[in-house]
Amino acid sequence: MSLIQNRPPVGPLHRHISLRPEVQALPDVASLVQTLRPEEPLHCIRPAVITAAAQAFTASFNGDVLYAVKCNPEPAVLRALWEGGIRRFDCASISEVSLVRRLFPGADIHFMHPVKSRAAIREAWIINGVRDFVLDSADELRKILEETNTPEAARIEARPGLFVRLALPETGAAINLSKKFGADAATAVELLRAARPHAGKLGVAFHVGSQCTDPLAWRDAMALAGEVIRAAGVRIEVIDVGGGFPAAYPDIDPPPLGAFMAEIDAAFDELNLPGVKLWAEPGRALVAGGSSVVVKVQLRKGNMLYINDGVYGALADAGALKFRFPTKLLRSRPSPGAPDAAFGFFGPSCDSLDVMHGPFILPDDISEGDWIEIGQLGAYGTCLRTGFNGFDRAALVEVRDPAMLETAGYAPQDDIEA
Ligand SMILES: *Cc1c(COP(=O)(O)O)cnc(C)c1O
Fold it and tell me: Which end of the chain is less congested by CB atoms within 10 angstroms, N or C?
């Protein structure tokens, strides 16, 4: 069963409670919970945190920044990113393409999934003005060239931007993407040569894997990209260093953003490719801190809490990937307080895989009826909600709270010149 359903990011049961332009006027989570006493999961978006992360990233990256929409396609999130200076979007499906086009008629949209349906290529090219496509095989190159050269497409003067996605050796990332996507070096050389005569612009792209905490992974990837470009012997216009930039979680305190940018800049200088531009496609690093979910405790059995959200909701990565997330108790009744203890969670579905071992640290007097705010869910969290077993209700609010964990380099108070 798939965790991701083909539904709009804001479903019919996903009420949008408030959308105020002034962040200062937004409520804070604790007082919201006090007044709403939410019975369903409450998704709390922090637009100011997202805007600040986007500003910090665009200020320190030496090129164009594309936001990877799959990480969180919520319109309120996309608007906060736009506010922070993001004007380019990395989309992987035609639904993402049309969502971004609807919200931002002037945005640049790039189709960066190496395997696309022919219909999606056509619709993106003809209707949505998408000009850049990624590929990692000769067959996909042929698909892109055929679908952008139909009689219907004849009025479009441009030639497609073609990006060859390079597979990378294992890095220190939490999630490796090179097992599924990417051409080996020899194939990439052939693809660059084959694509050049047809390309409006030609690029090399890679992805070191998501939540990669080792800045050297980019240096190694850039070196490999350089070898491939040299071996191909053709001119290119762009190197796209992908996403993978890490966020902070309770047991992960990644190096500051500047450390990653320093490696990328140094490696790029070494390649000595005048006229070539750098692109990046961050997802997680821009939005992880930008959302939390408030859940309600339905039952306590020892140190296991049965809560009203789980792995089929916003907490998928707390299950299979064993991510830990920061937690905060919001009591439903007064208490003298209690020392912290380690808890695990059971989600609301009848499925025994709906378990999150954490450990999640909470006061030991937590009980049925209390709420827990679970943080750092802006990336691959709030957008993974499914309707499995009927637990698909949630409400969405925008709040003014800071991120529950601050990642060095993305924090709002950080010097963005760094
Ligand atoms: C998922 C994805 C990204 C974003 O990755 P993060 O780890 O969230 O930064 C960027 N580019 C592509 C092609 C992706 O599939």
Answer: N
